[in-house]
DNA sequence: CTGAAAGCGCTAACAA
DNA sequence: TTGTTAGCGCTTTCAG
């Protein structure tokens, strides 16, 4: 194994000098720096992560805790993960993967054993035991999403309330006076971190403010449920000319259900969604983006800032962004002309 | 911070004794063991991962390299990841997450810097630069899937050839004499690790053997493509009474396309798939399972065996398993009675 | 069955 | 601008 001493000898300098070249923690003359770097190259030296962690009490590892339970939006999680890993690498950090199943003990073990410098927790529930644990840990953490009991924690999230409102503004601006809202499954409005509630609140408030008639209903991820919800919406809002969908899983079915009820998209009903941009792109739908990649980057950068002892805002809300498209949607991606 | 010395003092033993209690690498009297464990508990001691790695040259970390590029089957990846993490924890290991994007340099860095004891590589391509790198590394690796140039490597995979054959056997056993095959997108048959080709080969060979008429076609993840493929299949095989789908993304559309061509499922055409069991379950379809969880567990166990210096088979092929269901499929999960 | 002590490879004072 | 050196916390020989 190549050690820092080997490199030092090869370059004719002291081990500490090699260390300082690598960390940049003190000025090194250009010549020395170059010579050392060359030695590192030609010897194929890689600093021993454990030794480094031991001596510096910095692991350069961040722990990412994912909610890999059922019902989670996989595409969103994956984009987030990719973004976290690449941003971490930019900061010369590696990513330790944990699952929510490892629970509070897992956090304590990794923090206590110096397995990571900090934590990124995704999808923390309202009454999650980990919230308390994270507070007691001596390591910084960033939560994605913001549970109600988030005081004293650093959270980053899409501004879902603004996102809900943004939909109404957009549609009202187009002249719509009667707008439906098809939301997440009922349980989500209970169990979750509250993003669903916040979206709905933003939507409803904006509708009031703009004098728009609106009705909101949750939808289960079954066709029958979606169909029933669409029917109910049309009964409650006979003049409904626009529909906001905050439920990725059923988005593809909504167009078919509307059609089944004699409404064409976008001729009779303007459809828009709150979802990842790729999904909306595939369906040619206008949407408010769910920016998983920005969230990931942002979360890592906040964590790194905390690691460097900087102050960070308790809550970072990403402003919603609108992606405008024709709205000539395909049901499940099916071109209209192929429908019998 | 609580160190091993603190624990040793608290328990009235030598530090080495504490270490041996933890690692079990030499016999310890029951009394001592209990006393030490109590001290560990009451002090909340967690061994320092870096120090341990430095002293033992074992990190107890395995690196998982994921293909987070577009076009990958997210549900499969996620089940695999969950399984890897939990199996790793059973073996007292943590998981370092890497992406294929980190490439060969990433592998060299982590291996050289003692960031992990071994590697799990998912979805390695035929001409992947990492195959060569993995060979040169001094750390063991397990590949999920098996590239042609896999000699000398340890691979684990579903036996896709047997899976393709299993479909034919099942259908031929039911009396079908004319069977279609709707495969992955065309590019997959070129670029990938070969699982697609192997499935097809298994299917075709079995069809020959059983004297079954068959035709196979690739399908792109667009409705129009699927529809075209279905039409072509029906033209080539006018008597087609069964269809095997090896393409998760379009599975939902196939039923609709068949219907559009006047064929009902399962009355006129028996549909079966090679896909994760949950998907087939949701669609009420018979399938050959894509056992991501078993693969994950198996891969970790193989890696751990290698770490312990045990010999491992070069190739572990999991036998395909059939999940039988009614086959009364929902197109995109839509109950038939709701179709106009 | 248990202790003492020598490193593992690196960083960060302290010196120059 | 650079060198010297004392640990970081643990494992593992070597002794007992």
UniProtKB/TrEMBL annotation, chains A, B:
SUPFAM superfamilies: lambda repressor-like DNA-binding domains, Periplasmic binding protein-like I
Keyword entries, A-Z: DNA-binding, Transcription, Transcription regulation
Gene3D superfamilies with a match to the protein in the record: 3.40.50.2300, lambda repressor-like DNA-binding domains (1.10.260.40)
Transport recorded as keyword: no
GO MF terms, alphabetically ordered: DNA-binding transcription factor activity; transcription cis-regulatory region binding
Domain HTH lacI-type per the UniProt entry, residue ranges: 2-56
A Pfam short name: LacI
Annotated PROSITE patterns: HTH_LACI_2
Name this protein carries in UniProt: DNA-binding LacI/PurR family transcriptional regulator
The species this protein was found in: Lentzea atacamensis
